[in-house]
Amino acid sequence: GSNDLNETLLKRINGAGYIHLVPSKINDTYFLRLAICSRFSESKDIQYSWQEIKLRADEVLDEQSVSK
Questions:
Q1: Does position 1 have pLDDT exceeding 90, yes or no?
Q2: Is the Lyase keyword given for this protein (predicted)?
Q3: Number of independent structural domains in the chain
Q4: 44 lies in which domain range?
């Protein structure tokens, strides 16, 4: 997606408070990172995070399609 779309998605995900993503930018491309920092993380934690990302992305994309 566009940089603006990624920024909107970041605000939505982090604002919900269930997981935390970190933004980065390389060569004017804004992207999001999920850092796995705990040695106690399990695959179910990654799956939960991915489901949360997909949910928020669907919300943002649905809102974008309605506003067009």
A1: no
A2: yes
A3: 1
A4: 3-67
